[in-house]
Amino acid sequence: MKRLDASPPLRARYGHAAAFHSHSVWILGGFLAQTSPTSTDSSFSSDVWRVNLQSCSSPNALCLLPEQVTVKASWSSRYNHAAVSHRAALMVLGGQAEGGRSFNDVWQSSDGDLWTQVTASAAWSRRRSGHALVAFKDHLLVIGGRLEDAMISREVWVSADGSSWSQWSPPAGFVKITQFGAAVNNGTQLLMFGGRSFNEVENSFWVIE
């Protein structure tokens, strides 16, 4: 593992979403840190960056080349949202804005610049942030998350297109969970690990096939 420096550097942030789409890494939104210890310019963001990895002039070196696709996407500025590549489009779902307001909207874009709102209010009507979003077996899955009323969810919602959603029954013993890791293995297994469940921190693994 090595640290890679981007040129130009991206502004420091957290709670952003990241996805691999169209042969590039994409970084979307998040909460932007203040630019100096004395400044007051921290803010929620809806900017979109495309980051490519290329060889540098130094032997055996790699460089990150970020390109800001848009300063402000059509979706509202937010953090703790989720993004994934699905059916040749970038998808952005949910998240939280300034003041604690959460979202249950769904957006898509083929190029990261022009965005279309798939739905303003998905069937998982309780707005949420800190959820997991994966593309699994040609479907989108939204799992868990912190709801707008501060409750934590164990719901699993599935959609082929981001517009029509149906609820899956989670496996027995699956707890209410947020801020956990989820990844798809070879297109055939969905793996989940860790996260927070109210005042507990989890260390369990789950597999869905």
TrEMBL record:
Gene3D superfamilies according to UniProt: Kelch-type beta propeller
Pfam families referenced in this protein's UniProt entry, alphabetically: Kelch_KLHDC2_KLHL20_DRC7
GO cellular component: Golgi apparatus
Source domain of life: Eukaryota
InterPro entries per UniProt: Kelch-typ_b-propeller, LZTR1/Attractin
UniProt keyword list: Kelch repeat, Repeat
Coiled coil: none
PANTHER family for the chain: LEUCINE-ZIPPER-LIKE TRANSCRIPTIONAL REGULATOR 1
Protein name: Uncharacterized protein
